[in-house]
Structure formats: structure tokens, C-alpha cells
Design a protein that fits this description.
3 copies of one chain form a homotrimer. By secondary structure, the first copy, chain A, is of the alpha/beta class. Helices cover 31% and strands 20% of the residues of chain A. In chain A, strands 10, 11, 12, 13, 14, 15, 16, 17, 18, 19 and 20 form an 11-stranded mixed β-sheet that branches. In chain A, strand 21 and strand 22 form a beta hairpin. At the A-B interface, helix 2 and helix 4 of A face helix 7 and strand 14 of B.
């Protein structure tokens, strides 16, 4: 097939919407080929066409399309249709529809409005997946399985309540253990049996953090279990192609780390808000997600959805300026992705995404600005084929953990008006990228082996032996940068007694005594301590949260500049074993992170891909056995001079000492 | 009766609230007469007094009041009481209460909280209306029927679901046609029968635009059907007086164009926010509504409700400054109204509108500032009696369509943060008024015959053969000004294929290729093209939406000043047949509309009522067989000099070359 | 016991959360003693531990704790556990859970989620209270009963509907009277029987102000009745200790004036937002609440809860800067409180208040900044023991009435965007404090005897013969300052006819004719009238509401500066009997209140505790038979010089002509 040893270029396609327009279907293939697209996704949301009546399956139309694509040397990613159930299923099996947190059964409608616990729904999905696999698992065009679509949401029906209670029983064994873990004597919330536990609700209980947290875990686990059930049906029917499901940007509903275990390849849907802020900031934020997705399996991922033009469901449907589509597409490759895929090939005529950008729009001509840029991306991806399958070897890791987030953002205090976890993680990420480093974005379940530097911002919850792994990492010579509001609670959100950051006070050489919340309009400063080791010379402002620490061996590199804690440590350093542990006490401004991380890397001898990363530029690398590939992207409106290390040759793009505005240059170098 | 050949001066009156205060009732008549009021509305919300127990009707109190009014030469507008049902009805017939969109049956309470489908409710209303007509249809005081009050709202009960399904069956014939029209294969939302369709709900389906749109149409139709049912009951019982119902400002719940067909006379309730912005802007905005109401039947309308003082349910209950009441009252007349009516004659002592301004307030004296101004308005209306019944003959029309709005504001994209349809329409309206023109505000169902200039802003949906009518209009020599985001979808919100504005690309000489959404803080400019025909010399700023068009024969009169589409057309002109079609590409600032419309009118030789309309001034005219009447209103705080065409004599107000601050002058001229 | 003749120093303690940590329990007693704490509250929310299964009572753990405390000379405040019901109770008796206003029965969870009407819940509470009293009423350590916890909330279940209907029947006698009082003919809302009345609901009736108001009264009465039921159970079982329940800051849910009648001592929970604004403003606002609480019974109150550090459920968990805890604690004493009590002794490890500040935190050491300050407060309170039991004798009263607020804020108009009742009351309070006066904050049910000056801002509703009492007060020589929007309605929110402020137009020498609402961005000014008696020389700005009055004998001391009512009175004065009545026409700026009240006091010869109260300083006094105690608190960041009257000696704090930054000095003087 055409996609072997190639970067994938593709998109979601809904021929079932156009079956009474055979000419359009005909024409679409021409557009697809012209654009250089080599993989088409079909079947997403097609349930009502595949099985219009219960047990009555219609596959011929789909077979026809897949055959046509195959004839045209285009591979297929085949989706299971469970992203939306047909009306007849909802009518006949009301249990398949979700119950909301207010305990009302939903009506039919929308997308993921079905209960992942429901035996009937699982059975119906199993059947249709089985049929799909029986029909298409052997088809030479089919290269991937796309499992459902953007899993998410939760159901509070009686079946889910029961499943949740069983989940808890399995986790805790006895209800006494649950009561202790959730600290239920507070407000007399003690449970006498697992059967008494109800999911959190605005008309019931919302204040037991342990309950809220375990419910989120259960919902995530139940969703993953459903996905496994879907995949199993395919496998049982003989499907051997790799399976993926499309994840979403910074999605809070699922622990993707756990989900990824059951996928053959990770993929995600990326819709950055280009133009809303400086594009390089948008790119870095999106890059952090790319790195997160890649780090889930430490293998190439797919960019399963992206938009070639304006995205209709965003607040403002902004056009992509010339060059943005190319840069956005190549960013996926730069961060370790092996594909660029669009939602969608042809714009629907009706319903809620009819104005979503697409390869072919309502006008239907090939002479549009957007289509011409799409063709250009196709050619560029073709020219980068050798990169397919190569890896990213990161020296740096950022710990960014969804369960930590669930717990931290639900726990009341120390700043209900905003903790800014994502922003804190992004500040560290941005600073590491500014050092010219490839960065893995990992959760607490991952190993820390092989990294030289680890940023650990706001690790409120220590789980999966985070404290033990960080201790080892530093002892063995690593550089750790931890921040305020870390090591506060255990896995069930119970506060650690005896001093925090829990079990790392010796590693960090300090104990957090109090943490001050600042109003939105307040700020403090960190002032350099005289003759501090890092040679910091200027003050930086901090906001939101200020940790007051007692030093137990660490050195204060910076101190607070104002309030009653002026003069107390704002940045500390401690030597532990062969390594070094820094502690950032306050929610400092971005410049602090960028400057201080740079100095920390210099001092630790950690080298970036470029000596210096100019403003507006991003740098990434991939490597295979023979070559290292270097991606330099300019997201600004002006060309930027970039001093390249020796030994590189250009693989794509243009370079005469500078990278042109809004453009990408790819180099390679034999290792 | 006293109101023949007179302008009506009146108000809503609730004697039933004061039946144990006979002296107050006595006194009220004196106040009414003193104010020059000649029409009193009674019966609104009086159901619980008229029929305190099921089938037990009490009309004597009402008869007494009507007799008293008649004796005092005051006419009566008699209301059907269906605006609020009595408690016994709700208790006995729960089906009469509405079910909200979350599918919960309402409790008793508020006003329009009854199901317009409910057979029981319809029957109870039929009975009481029949009784009312039997009692009062022959009473010489009764001049009008006021049907219910401010119809609105929706019900999702099983009866309404059924009625909606029947409505759809009637419209589409087969469910296959419905599926195509709603594009239901998107997200597998195909229906197998009409019986499966459910009304939109936040606990069900909200994303099928075709469903949402047809639901709005159904709700509107069902409301109108209910109103017809009410009127029929009166007619069957022998009532012959004209019937009206009070419409509301920019109301989104009903297609008033359809409703007006079944009314003898249009009326509406006007509560402008005087003092919130420059008063002339408030006046123009309110004037656009007056024109909309008049244009519904192209006949004089009634100002059924207005407030003589502060309106209690607004965010800020602002007093009317001296002169505002007079100007606001005469504005109704200026725009083709034949009445000034107040809510309310006497302030209620309790409940939610007890602080609503009124002719007689809680204090109860005739020596208040407000009452004195009310008397003055009465005298002025008396002096303008000859104007009653005269028409407005507008050269200009603004197309402003409720179904277009329903569709456009529900469709996701291109700017969910705000499309500003009303604002866009207002910019065109204001510009036409600034040209000194009388303006009809019409929807797409109306004919375009007789107009010289038509503004067609944001006609996202073309329905009722809009494209055909506009084509004819231009071909026959008319001047059309269309804007961005027009001609995108058909009547069921399906996107037109092959280029937009649909079927008018030749008339406009262009095709819209892409549309850019701008963030709130962004703007672009339109720069005059060199030697443009209109002689535009300065740039103007635009925001929100920028259409990128490909010219197909049109001339670019202005071009964008920035972004990647700098230099592309921002304002175009095309000659088609005997007429001219302009296209405004972006959401331009008001000054653009005012200046450009002025130049367009000049070029097309379209003359206004005044050569020049000064800032702060509004101009309107009415005419009967013999005379033309000219209304010039000054809404500013300073006198304004106005150069009057020849041949006019003053009918009301004072003029010595200038119109005094916050005042009105009315002239007449023999035709 | 140790607390006789002492100020109480205490806190809430939850040993039941730590029963498997005997060492912690051991240690806690040491902390408590070290801090100087002499009263410990136990039992709050302990139901699930006391009665883990229905009818199975476990008191031994509680007895052990109380014995331990007693051995250590620490008294006990014993709580009834009804603040949260155990799970088994909710499971077995669903009627015990509340029904929300949308008519949905709540699930188990949160705190006050139980129906105060439910016979079953009442019976269960009666039983456990009886048991508690049987066990502990005779224990020598038990000094107080703490009834439930922070009563609040409402239930709309069928039992409550029935109880509401009975409440109404008792109040009105006949449904006709109810209909008149609620003015139900408006919108045909007439009730045919009490059984038809339903509580206000967003899915039913929200617009009958009389209904809304009586519902609030019923909810308040029902809560109080439940509290009485709780206390009765204790008394019936032989408990003789005084009973209190903890009230809350500016709480809208209960008429505390009525509640206090059934309490032996008033107490409240105070959590000021120190640091959010200037601390002296925070202090004054909190002081107004202290004064309100003291004035409920005109006897010393308890500060039942306060936070020694950051409060986790506030938007920002701000640390208390050094000195704030001491000042905040002594403020309670300064305003007539006899205690400083904390929530909580030991921080819980889990659930929603785990980050709430406490005497002992998760770290668990005695070497924290917070604990050291807590010890210091303990020592200071010890040194002030002689003040315990002394009273406050205020010359000034501020009328601040909850029923007035309920009615005014529900009534639509004259400014739905904000009436600012609390702010208006605070402006008067602040001004009186600035005059150096002790102030009672009283509701309309209280007597006015003994005051020299009364501020009566925004008394929209006159109830409890407010007009009669104010008339007497002025006639007998008092100084009254009334404002705009007073005397508008009667007790059932029916508007007074014939002129307002109702029945006081002669006392004030004016009638309010109209009231203008101003937009947020608008303002007017009050300009001094020439040679006005008070010698006011500068203009002040006013916002929001401007009353236009007709003088009927009063003098205009100031007049409006702009708008059409420029020159009309803005501040008036009238002599009536032996007294003087001022009327403030508009919502004036704070400086107006401070300056004008000062001048009014001077003119009336009303003397403050200090000649002059400097910026940033608060002054209060208490007295017993022999001594007067003077509290001067500096809430600023700089020392402030204070000129002290003669005869005082220092009881606590340091003073050398100035009071140090953020500190308190207490003086005493023999009377």
C-alpha cells in the first residue's frame, strides 16, 4: 500500500452524506489525489447508514468507496461507528442513553450520549464492530482501525452507579478503608456499605474530594474498558491492523496515559487558535500537546484531525494566513508525528459543522487558496518520507499529570480563583524549549530514566511513587526543578502529615511552612540573593501563590522582595546525592522560567539543539538509526537568522542564513 | 364614538384591582378625561375575576366600567384574558401548563405559562372569548379587540411533540425528505419516522440546525394558530370590531410577518431605553421597529403600550427627562402610528410591576410632573387629528428577516462570539434615515415593487425566492446594497453549492471565496480605490467579519488595508440590467454606512425629505390624499437649525429656523 | 470551671476524625493548653460516630474526650449533631432530604440537606439530643450547648408546602385576605384556598412579591422552630447550660432577630477578607456585623468561629499578616464579644475543608508562625479577663433590617442593576464610627429608646410600626437621618398610597415625588445650598438613585448639581417636635456621609469617644458597673497618634502617644 514508509496525509470523509450525488463522489477522488492524500478515514458516525434497522447491515456502499480508494492507491482508516448511536437503538433501548449528573435520563441526540456500562449498548457495538471486521479486516486498503471518536463524557445511570460501587469494592476491599481514604467522618459522611455510594451530583454530594477523584478515575477506566471492548470485537473477528482512537487537546475527562496502553498507536485532534495570540506561543502550547501525545507511548503518533481553514465551532472562525497551514502541519512531524490528517475532506451541507474548514468546500472548485496550500503540504510531506517512523530522544521531561490536576483543581484552596496548573506547566515547557531541548511530557506513572533535567511544577498529589522516583533521579545525578504546592496529598487526596513536599524535604533541603494566596491584582517579586550561584542579576515578578519555606540545608538563590515575608527564599537549590534539586517558591513570570532554566542548564552542562533559540523560533529533532533530523520553524512575520550547528543538509524548505517568515526548514545530519 | 378620525390616546386599565376602592375608580375617570385620553384597554389578565370558578362568569363589574367610560365618551379596547390562566384551570387541567425544554411540567405561575396546543386550554379560551363577545360585541364603546397579551414562549409537552410531528409531516410529506433537508446523516441522526422527532432540548438534541429552525417555525405557527382560534371565537359570537395583539421589540419568538396576516391592525409595545445612549440613537433604533411594525401591513399601526415614566423591569428605572415623553409619543405618529397608549393608567399596589410608570401613580395626585406632561401629549395629539389614517410611502426598504436570524444565529460559525445581525441592519437603517428617506423594514416574504433602494444586510438565508426578487429588482433599475454573509443557505439551512451569494453572483459580479472572523480586538480598514466612482476619499474601519471575494465583473470601489488580504475588494459595484448592485464585504463602522449610502443615493438620484439631515435630528413623513405631513424631531440637548423645503405650514410645535432641544415640529403641505 | 469570669478562648475540635491516632489526640491536648485555650467545642457533625446505626448510640469516645479536657481544666461547648445527617438516616427516611426549588428531591450529601419540617427528621434529632443531654448535661466540663451548625437553606417538599399553607392560614385567616395582601389580581393569580399556594419556583411562580416575601419568612420561622425543637429536647432531658447557635455574616436566609429570642446567647462565625481592601474598611465592615450580633440581645456575644490563618473556601486563601490575628481577635472583644473561638483546632486530612487554617496544621509542630501568634492572643485574652460580661451602651443606632432587604431586593425597580442596601447601611455605619460613637445595629422590631441619633438608610418597607417609632423618636428630641427609597411599602410589600415616606412626610417635611435610576457610569452631585445650616462647603457626588422630593416645610441644605433636576433638594433638614429629621435624597459617596454626619453630630451636641478618630483607626468602648474600657485599634501599616481623653490607664497593648501599626491598645477608666 501507498502509506508504507511514508508520512501519512489524509482526512475524514463522509461519502454517506453524498450518496445521491454520484458526480460529487466521483470528483472527490480527483481532489484527494490532486492533494497528495494517501489515507482516507471512513465510517466515523456512519452507524445509521451501516445498520439502518436493528440487525440489518448495509456494507456495500462502504465497500464500493473503499474499493474505489484502493484502486486509486489510497489507503483507508476504518472507523467503528460508536461515536453516535442511531435513533432506533435509543428508541428501543433507553438504557443506552446517558443519565446526567442531575439524575435525568437524556433524550436522543448529540454524539457521545450513550452509557459505556450498558450491556445492551456494548452488545450492539460488539455486533457492528464484528460485522465491520468480518467485511473489511482482510481488505488490502484498510491500514488502521479508528475506534469510535473523541471518547468523553460520563453517565450516572443505575448501571453506572453499580459499576462504580464494584470498582470501589475492588479498589478498597472494605468500606472502612474507603471511609478512611475519603476521610468521611468529616461532615458525617460515613458509608456503611459500597452500595450506599452515589456518584457526585449537584443535587447530592460534591464536597468529598476522594469521592470526586475516584469517580473521575472510574469514568476514565470505564471509558477505556469500553474502548477495549470495541477493539476486542475487531480482534475476535480477525482484524490485525493497528488500532487508534483520537484524543483531544488537554482533555480532562480521561487518563490518556492509561488509555494509551491499549492502543497500537496514539493519535489526536489539534485545533490551535492561530492568530489569537502571538503564533509562536500558540505553536509552543500546541507543541506541548504533541509532546504529551508522543510521550504516551514514546513512539510516533498521528495527527488525526486538523483543520485546513477556519474552525467553525471556535468563538471566532479565523482563516489561516498563508503559511500557517504548512507550519502547523510540519509541527506535527517535528514533534514526532507521522501524519497530517484533516477533518474533513468535503464540507457537509447541513448540521453543526457545515462551516468547518475542509479540503473541498461548498463552492467545490480546486482553484481556492486553501486547496492550493493543501496541495503544497502534500508535496512537502512526500519529500519528507524518510522521516516516517523516526523517534524523538528527549533529555528533558516535564511532569504533567491528569490525576494530579483532577485532585488539585477540586481541592478547595489555596486559590479557588485560579491555580493555573496548565499555565505553570507551560511556563516550564516553554523554558525548556527555549533551551533548545526536545521535551517529553509525561505523567507520574512513567519512568524517569534517561533524562538529564526534569521540571515538576505543582505536583500537588504524589502518586505512583513519585517521591521515590524523583529521589532516585536526583540521587543519580539528575537536575530537578520542583515548584510550590507539591507533595501535599497522597493518592486519595489525604494530606500528608509531618511536612511537605512529602518525603522530599531532604532532597529539596526545605519544608514548606505556609502558602499565601494573592489577589489577581497583587504581585510580589523574587530578588537575586547576593552572589547566588546561578548568577541571577535581576528581579522577577510573581503572582497568585507564594510558598513560604523553611530552609533545611538548601541555599536561597532568590528571596521575596515584599510583603511580610520579604527576604525569605523565593528560589532555592539543594545538592542531593549526585544531583541538584531546585525549588521555585512562587508562580513566577515567564521570563523568570526562561532565564533561570537557561542558567540551570548551563550550569548542569545540558546542551540544546541550537546554541541559542531566537525569539519566534521553535526547534525540534527526530532521529532514526542513521540520521538526525532538525526542524526549525519560524512563527513570526519576519525572517529570523539562525546559526546552525555543523554537518546539516537541507531536506525541505529554504535557508540562506535565515528562516523566512512563517515557514519551516528541515535539515538532516548523519549520526 | 370619540376616536373616529382621531389619533388614539389611551392606556391599559385594571379596575378589577381596585374594586374595593370605589372612590379611586371614580377619581380615575376624572384623571383619564383630564389627560385627554380617548381609549381605555380593559380585560387584560382579568380571567380570574371574569371566571373565578369554572363556568361561572362575572361580567357585571366590567359592564359597569365600560358603561362609565362610554358615558364619559371614552372608547374601549377589550382584551381577551388568555395572557394568564386562573389557578383553578391549572389545578384541574394540568395539561394546560407548559413543559419546559428540559421536559419538566411547569407549576402554576407567571404569564404565558400555558400550552397553545392543549385542547382543554383552547376550549376554555374559546368559551370565555365567546362569552366576552356575547356580552360586549354590541357595546357601542368597544372599538377594538385586544387578543391576549404579548404572545410568546414555547411548550415541549407530549401534545406539542405530536403537533410538531404533524407539522413536519405536512411540510415534508416523507421522513426521507426531512432527513435530507436536515442533513441527518451527519452524526447518524437519521429519523425512521416523524413520530421519532423530538423538539430540541439541552438534555437531548441541540445540534441539528434544521430541527432547531423548524421547531422555531412550528412554535411561531402554533402561537399564531392559537391566536386565530381566539379571534375565531369572537367572530363566531358576532364580534365585528378590528382585532389586534400587542407585539414586542425585536422579538425572536414569533414570525410577526405571518402573524400580521391574521390581524386587522398591527400594534406593539415600545419601551426604549432613553438616556442609555445618545437619545437620537435610541430614537433611530426605536424608529426602525416602528417602521418594521408599519411595514407588516403597510398600514397605520397602534403603539399599544408605552411608559409615561420609568419602566420598572429594566435594569435601571430611568425617569424620562422633560420633553422625552412628547418626542417618544410623536415618534409613533411620525412613523405611521395612529395611537399613543400607555401601560398603565393606574399603578398597581403590589406584584411585579408595581413600580412601573403610569398615568396615575401611588401618590395619586394630578400635580405631578409626569401627569402634566401626559396632559400636554393629549392636547398635541388632539391637534394632529387629521393625520389619523394617513400612510407612509417609502422609497427605501431594509430587509430584516426573522427566519434568517433564527438560522444565522443558530448556525455555528463564522463568528460564534457575535455576528451582530441586528446591529448590521441598524447601520443600514440609520444610513438610509440619514439620507432623509422614509424606510420600510420588510422581511423576505414581502414584495420589492416600488422601492428605489434596498439594503440587504447579512441575508444568510435566502427564502421565499429572495434571490429571484432581488434579481428582478436590480434588473428593473433598482439600487441594491447587499453585504457579506448573504445567500449562504436555503430555507432548511442547507448550504448552497457552487458559489455564493447563491444565484446572485452575476447580479453582484462577484463570488465570496472565504470569510475571515476577527477577534474582538482586531480590525481592518477599507481604503478608497483610486478614482472610485463614488468619490470616496477616506478609509473606514471594519470589524468582526471580512469577506474575501473574487470579482466576476464588479468594480472594487474600496479595498482592504491590512492582513494578508490587503488590496482585495472591500466594497464593490456591479451594473446589472438597468440597476446597480453594491456589495459591502466587511462589518464596517457606522460612518462608512452613512457616508457611502449618501453617495449611493446621490449617484442614483434618490432624494430625501430634507436636503440634509443634521446630527441629532430625525425626519419622517406621512401622507393622505390631500396632504403630506413632515415630522422633524430633535433628540438633542441643543436647538438645531433645519432648512425646510418650500410649501410647508406648521401643524404642531414651534419653529423659527430651528427645532428646539428635545422637541418635535410637524408640518403639512398640500400635495 | 476555668471560663467563669474570663474571656473565652476556644475552637472546634473533631477528635472523631483521629480515633485511630491516639498519639495525635494526646498531643492535641498539649497544644490546646499551650495556646491558652479554655473552651473546646465538640460534637459538631458527629452524628455518624455517635449513632452509627439507627438507635445504636456510642458516647464513650466523647465522654473520654470530655473527661480528658476536664482533667486539663478546659471547658466544653457540646454540639447537637444535626448539622449533617448520617447516611443511614437518608437511606431509610427519604423524606428527611430536601426538595429543591425545582421540585427535585436531593440525594444524600453536603451539610444542611434535611427538611426542617419532616416529622421523622425531627424525631431522630429529638432522640439524639435527648441522649446527648442525658449523658452530658450533668458533666461539670460542659458549659454551653451549641445547637446544630450554621442553620440555613430551604426545602420545597410536600411537607413544607403543607406547613407553608398552614403558616399562611395562621397569618391571614382567610384566603381573601391573602389575595389582597399579595395583590393577586395582578396577572390573575388569585388563590381559591390556602391549599393552592405553592412555594416560589423557577418552574412556577417567582413574580408575586408577597408570596416570595412570606416564603422567606416561613423558611426563617420554620428553621427557628426546628432550632427550638432541638433546644427543647435538651431541656426536657435536664440540660441547663446556655444554648447558642452560630450565625453567619450578613446572612440572608434567616431573620436572626427572631432567632435570637430563643437563644441564651448569640454567637457568630466571622471570616473577614483581610487584605482584600484597606484593612480598616474590612474591620469596619466586620465591626458592623459584630454590632449587629451584639444588638440582637444587647448582651455580650460569642465569636464562635474564626480562622487563625488562611480560609480555604474563599476565592483566595490569604495568609493573615503578622498582627492581623491579634487585631481581629480583639475586635470581637471591643464590640462586646466575650470570646475568640477558632474553626478549627486540628486540620482535617481530607474533604472540603482540609486546607482551612487551624490551630494545629498538617505539619503538626508548635514552631509555626501561626501557632505562636495564637499563643500570644491567648495570653492577651487572659490579661483582659475583667472585661468579660461588660456591656456596650450606644448613643447611636443604625437600622438595618432583613425583612426590608428581602422585600426591597425582590421588588422590581427602581434599579434592578443594583440597589446597594448593604453598602448604604455601611456608609452610615462608617460615618457614625468616624464620629467616635458606639453603634447598635438594630432591626425594625427593636425599640428606639435611649438613642440620640438614628441612621435609617433605605427603609423601603416600614414594618413593626417603624413610622410610629421614628415619629416618637424625633418628636422626643432625637436626630434622625433617613434616606431615599424609604417608607414605600407595608409589611406585605403593598405600596403606600398618598405619598411617601409613608406617614413621615410631616416629620421629614417633604414628599418623595419621583426617583431616578442612574446607569453605572452616570453620576450627579449634591452642591451646598448657600448659607446652609450645617456649614457644608463642598460638593459631593452621588450615584445609582436620585430621589426628587417636594419640600413641605423642610430646608434644602444641598441641591442637585446637574440633570433636569439640578437645583432640587439633595439633602434636607426638618425640625419636628424637639428633634430633627434629615433626609438624604441620593446614594451619595462615602465622604458625604462622613462629613455630613460629623456636622450633624456636632450640631446636635452628640459626643464621640474620641474628639477625633484618625484615618485607619477604630474606637469602641464597653462598660461594667465600675469601669469603662476603651479599645483603639490601628488597622494601618503605620503608627498613628491618638489624643486620648483624660483618666485612662492601659490594660493591654503599648501606647506612647501613638498606637503601633496593626495593633490594639485597651484602656480602662473608673466611671
Amino acid at each position: 500500500m501507498s502509506i508504507k514508509n511514508k508520512l501519512i496525509y489524509g482526512g475524514d470523509y463522509y461519502p454517506e452524506q453524498w450518496m445521491d450525488h454520484p458526480k460529487i463522489l466521483e470528483q472527490d477522488i480527483q481532489f484527494i489525489k490532486k492533494a497528495g492524500i494517501n489515507l482516507i478515514t471512513v465510517g466515523v458516525f456512519a452507524w445509521s447508514v451501516i445498520e439502518p434497522k436493528e440487525g440489518e447491515y448495509h456494507f456495500s456502499w462502504l465497500e464500493e468507496i473503499i474499493d474505489r480508494l484502493y484502486e486509486n492507491e489510497i489507503s483507508v482508516m476504518l472507523a467503528t461507528p460508536s461515536g453516535a448511536r442511531p435513533k432506533w437503538l435509543a428508541q428501543k433501548y433507553p438504557e443506552a442513553l446517558r443519565v446526567n449528573e442531575g439524575r435525568q435520563r437524556n433524550l436522543f441526540g448529540e454524539r457521545h450520549n450513550h452509557c459505556f456500562t450498558s450491556p445492551v449498548y456494548r452488545e450492539k457495538v460488539r455486533k457492528i464492530n464484528t460485522k465491520l471486521a468480518e467485511c473489511f479486516a482482510g481488505h488490502p486498503a484498510v491500514a488502521f482501525w479508528h475506534i469510535s471518536n473523541e471518547y468523553g463524557g460520563e453517565c450516572h445511570c443505575p448501571l453506572c452507579q453499580k459499576a462504580f460501587q464494584e470498582w470501589l469494592r475492588k479498589k478498597y476491599g472494605t468500606v472502612e478503608k474507603l471511609n478512611k481514604a475519603w476521610w468521611t467522618r468529616f461532615w458525617s459522611h460515613t458509608y456503611d456499605s459500597f452500595e450506599e455510594v452515589e456518584s457526585p451530583s449537584s443535587v447530592g454530594e460534591k464536597s468529598i474530594h476522594g469521592l470526586n477523584l475516584d469517580w473521575k478515575r472510574f469514568v476514565s477506566d470505564q471509558t477505556i474498558d469500553f474502548m477495549r471492548h470495541e477493539i476486542q470485537a475487531l480482534r475476535d473477528a480477525g482484524a490485525k491492523q493497528p488500532a487508534t482512537t483520537n484524543m483531544m487537546y488537554d482533555f480532562q475527562g480521561i487518563n490518556y496515559g492509561k488509555m494509551a496502553e491499549y492502543l497500537d498507536i496514539v493519535s489526536w485532534d489539534s485545533y490551535p487558535l492561530w492568530g489569537k495570540k502571538e503564533d509562536v506561543r500558540i505553536a509552543l502550547d500546541n507543541g506541548m500537546q504533541h509532546d504529551y501525545m508522543r510521550s504516551l507511548k514514546h513512539r510516533p503518533f498521528l495527527l488525526l484531525e486538523s483543520c485546513p481553514s477556519a474552525t467553525n465551532w471556535q468563538g471566532v472562525s479565523k482563516l489561516k494566513k498563508p503559511g500557517v497551514l504548512m507550519n502547523a502541519s510540519l509541527q506535527s512531524i517535528a514533534h514526532g508525528g507521522d501524519s497530517v490528517q484533516y477533518f474533513q475532506i468535503r464540507q457537509s451541507r447541513g448540521s453543526s459543522e457545515k462551516f468547518h474548514g475542509s479540503v473541498i468546500d461548498h463552492y467545490g472548485g480546486a482553484d481556492t487558496r486553501v486547496f492550493l496550500e493543501i496541495c503544497q503540504v502534500g508535496r512537502t510531506l512526500e519529500s519528507l518520507s524518510e522521516i516516517a517512523g523516526s523517534d524523538v530522544h528527549a533529555k528533558a521531561a516535564l511532569i504533567y499529570d491528569i490525576e494530579n490536576r483532577w485532585a488539585m483543581e477540586d481541592a478547595q484552596g489555596p486559590r479557588n480563583d485560579g491555580l493555573y496548573y496548565h499555565e505553570a506547566a507551560f511556563k516550564s515547557y516553554q523554558a525548556l524549549k527555549h533551551c533548545g531541548l526536545d521535551v517529553d511530557v509525561i505523567d507520574m506513572d512513567q519512568k524517569l530514566d534517561g533524562y538529564q533535567i526534569i521540571a515538576a511544577p505543582m505536583l500537588y498529589m504524589f502518586r505512583s511513587d513519585m517521591e521515590g522516583k524523583l529521589r532516585e533521579f536526583v540521587k543519580n545525578g539528575g537536575t530537578l526543578i520542583m515548584t510550590y504546592w507539591s507533595g501535599i496529598v497522597n493518592e486519595t487526596d489525604l494530606c500528608h502529615l509531618g511536612g511537605t513536599p512529602h518525603d522530599l524535604t531532604d532532597v529539596l533541603g526545605l519544608r514548606s511552612e505556609e502558602i499565601d494566596g494573592l489577589y489577581d491584582w497583587e504581585e510580589n517579586t523574587a530578588e537575586p540573593a547576593a552572589e547566588n550561584e546561578l548568577g541571577i542579576v535581576r528581579p522577577y515578578t510573581g503572582k497568585n501563590l507564594c510558598d513560604l519555606v523553611q530552609l533545611k540545608g538548601a541555599l536561597a538563590l532568590m528571596v521575596y522582595g515584599s510583603d511580610f515575608y520579604a527576604g525569605r527564599p523565593a528560589l532555592t537549590k539543594n545538592t542531593f546525592g549526585n544531583g541538584t534539586a531546585y525549588y521555585v517558591c512562587a508562580d513566577m513570570e515567564e521570563a523568570f522560567y526562561r532565564d533561570v532554566y537557561k542558567k540551570i542548564c548551563e550550569r548542569a552542562g545540558i546542551q540544546g539543539l541550537l546554541e541559542d533559540v531566537p525569539e519566534g523560533i521553535t526547534v525540534n529533532s527526530r532521529e532514526n538509526r542513521e540520521y538526525q533530523y532538525l526542524f526549525i520553524q519560524n512563527y513570526g512575520q519576519e525572517p529570523v537568522r539562525v546559526a546552525l550547528p555543523e554537518g546539516y543538509e537541507i531536506l525541505a524548505g529554504e535557508y540562506e542564513g535565515a528562516v523566512a517568515a512563517m515557514s519551516t526548514v528541515v535539515w538532516k545530519r548523519r549520526k
